């Protein structure tokens, strides 16, 4: 067996190998840490992508379903329109004849006998329709045949007492017979109940608000309406019903935030866990400014009234005979519903529920006022509309219920408005109400990062010592396994000493390198956390600034809320009644 001596060169080579091994281990540790971090980032990104894909697929499916839904609605709408034309097309001729007869008597170009012949033909061709005997009565009045006129009136009353009374109230007013108008109008109101008003009462209010019934009749009608309102307010269940009715109308103005508005809160969207609640609350509060704009626009709008009473009443008469026929109503309801389906697809239900009462044959007084509002504001302009003066009166009469509905909305908003705005950066969490505790949050964030840094440093220290010890435990046995180890047991003292010195050198070198690595890692950790502090504190300050802006915007909307409530509460219906028409000539009938 050849002798083996441990030289300084051997020890230096071994130390160099240990250093390289330690460096490789550090590199592996760094790669593992980096890989773990990258996997966390990748996992988060994958989850976000999956969520985005799911959202896109859901949107795509909705678009596909909506397309089929709208196609079916269009087909149904086309079929309903054909059904109405087939079943009620002959009514159109009668309705047009009503205005034609009135205008013919104005110019006196048509012979009275010719008018009677036309109406008799309509009577024979359109059985059971209330308007035909009413027109026949007009023809008899024109030729001064009182007995036949009275018989025709009785037949019209049998067919539809309510519409006939209103029809002749308007005809009497058109001809300047104010006493007859008042009598027919009184007859009409005696047939009405505030709990079950016929839908054509809208025409009454429309005529009332433009002064078509004259001062005395107009005031009597308005006092009746005010009494109906007081009766409802004295009945808590009924009042609650009206408030709920108007609440559904007001809530139609609640819409999602615009992209421009949302872009003002990018930090909150990313770093506030309760952003969804904040967003929902902000959408709730946006309603007040929209409501004030809509209602003030109605009440401040210039009232446009026909300069001639004949033209105004002709419009009212056409509305009466065209829009409120009970036989057609079910078809018109379905046509309107299909129209909403085509416009809003599967989202049509909220719009239909809000205006469904508009298409009922009868309704309560509060429902009537809501219907007036819905016809002229929420519904499409092509749908049945009323004058802007009627809009004003409807809103003023319903002011108690609108204000009550608004107060309920405000109370609900206050309950759902988050008291605190949560902030989460990495695993640090804090909260602020309006950004007034920035110093406290920065202190908390600093403590959080300091604690994290100390944990990392302690972990690094332990890891370094463990690594050094592990390397020593591995390399020393390898060192001991040299072939010349056998000489140790054969009593070779010189080799024995060399091996001991080599082991000591290995241990010392390993521990020295570990200490050196600890220092390098410590410096890196400290630099990383300094960078994190700059990044996280910047995020926190920006998020706090948005929290302040959020509360400011909420406060602005709450100010709009008070403004709207005061505006509605101070309305006085009497100030929205138009003055009556004057100097109306008697054209057809004498007293």
Features:
591 residues, mainly alpha, two-stranded antiparallel sheet, two-stranded antiparallel ribbon, 4 strands, elongated
What does this entry look like structurally?
Keywords: Membrane, Transmembrane, Transmembrane helix. The chain crosses the membrane at residues 462-480, 495-514. With 591 residues, the chain is mostly helical. The chain has a domain at 235-304 and 387-590. It is 76% helix and 2% strand. The chain is built from 22 helices and four strands. It has helices spanning 8-107, 112-125, 131-142, 146-159, 161-174, 178-190, 201-209, 215-233, 236-250, 259-262, 266-271, 275-285, 287-300, 309-323, 329-344, 349-355, 365-378, 388-397, 399-416, 438-480, 486-489, 493-569; strands at 197-198, 362-363, 421-425, 428-432. It has a two-stranded antiparallel sheet with strand order 1-2. Strands 3-4 form a two-stranded antiparallel sheet. Strand 3 and strand 4 (428-432) form a beta hairpin. Helix 1 (8-107) packs across helix 2 (112-125), helix 9 (236-250) runs parallel beside helix 17 and helix 17 crosses helix 18 (388-397). The termini are far apart. Residues 582-591 have low confidence and may be disordered.
């Amino acid at each position: 067996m050849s002798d083996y001596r441990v030289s300084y060169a051997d020890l230096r080579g071994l130390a160099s190998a240990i250093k390289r091994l330690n460096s490789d281990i550090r590199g592996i540790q760094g790669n593992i840490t980096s890989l773990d971090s990258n996997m966390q980032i990748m996992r988060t990104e994958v989850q976000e992508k999956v969520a985005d894909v799911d959202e896109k697929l859901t949107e795509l499916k909705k678009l596909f379903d909506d397309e089929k839904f709208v196609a079916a609605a269009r087909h149904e709408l086309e079929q309903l329109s054909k059904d109405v034309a087939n079943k009620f097309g002959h009514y159109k001729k009668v309705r047009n004849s009503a205005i034609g007869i009135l205008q013919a008597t104005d110019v006196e170009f048509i012979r009275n006998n010719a008018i009677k012949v036309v109406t008799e033909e309509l009577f024979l061709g359109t059985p059971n329709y209330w308007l035909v005997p009413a027109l026949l009565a007009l023809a008899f009045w024109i030729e001064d045949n009182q007995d036949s006129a009275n018989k025709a009136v009785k037949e019209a009353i049998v067919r539809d007492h309510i519409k006939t009374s209103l029809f002749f109230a308007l005809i009497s007013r058109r001809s300047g017979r104010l006493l007859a108008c008042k009598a027919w109008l009184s007859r009409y109101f005696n047939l009405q109940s505030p709990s079950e008003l016929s839908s054509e009462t809208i025409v009454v209010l429309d005529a009332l608000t433009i002064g078509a019934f004259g001062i005395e009749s107009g005031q009597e009608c308005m006092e009746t309406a005010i009494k109906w309102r007081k009766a409802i307010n004295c009945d808590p269940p009924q009042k609650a019903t009206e408030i709920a009715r108007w609440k559904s109308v007001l809530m139609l103005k609640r819409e999602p935030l615009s992209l421009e508005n949302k872009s003002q809160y990018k930090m909150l969207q990313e770093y506030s866990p309760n952003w969804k609640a904040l967003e929902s609350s902000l959408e709730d509060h946006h309603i007040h400014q929209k409501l004030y704009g809509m209602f003030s626009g109605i009440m401040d709008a210039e009232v446009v009234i026909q300069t001639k009473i004949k033209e105004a009443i002709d419009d009212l008469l056409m509305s009466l005979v065209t829009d409120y026929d009970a036989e057609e109503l079910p078809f018109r309801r379905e046509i309107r519903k299909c129209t909403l389906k085509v416009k809003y697809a599967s989202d049509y239900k909220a719009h239909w529920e809000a205006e469904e009462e508009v298409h009922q044959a009868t309704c309560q007084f509060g429902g009537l006022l809501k219907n007036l509002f819905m016809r002229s504001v929420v519904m499409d302009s092509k749908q049945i509309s009323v004058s802007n003066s009627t809009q004003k009166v409807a809103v003023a009469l319903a002011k108690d219920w609108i204000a009550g509905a608004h107060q309920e909305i405000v109370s609900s908003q206050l309950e759902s408005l988050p008291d605190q705005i949560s902030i989460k950066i990495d695993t640090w969490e804090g909260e602020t109400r309006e950004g007034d505790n920035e110093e406290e949050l920065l202190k908390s964030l600093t403590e959080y990062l300091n604690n994290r840094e100390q944990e990392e440093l302690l972990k690094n220290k332990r890891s370094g010592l463990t690594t050094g010890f592990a390397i020593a435990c591995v390399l020393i046995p390898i060192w001991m396994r040299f072939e010349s180890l056998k000489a140790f047991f054969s009593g070779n003292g010189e080799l024995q000493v060399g091996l001991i010195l080599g082991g000591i050198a290995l241990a010392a070198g390993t521990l020295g390198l570990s200490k050196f690595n600890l220092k390098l890692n410590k410096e890196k950790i400290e630099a990383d956390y300094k960078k994190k502090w700059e990044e996280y504190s910047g995020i926190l300050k920006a998020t706090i600034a948005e929290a302040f802006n959020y509360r400011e915007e909420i406060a602005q909307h709450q100010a709009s809320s008070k403004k709207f409530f005061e505006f509605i509460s101070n309305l006085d219906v009497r100030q929205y009644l138009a003055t009556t028409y004057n100097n109306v000539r008697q054209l057809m009938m004498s007293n």
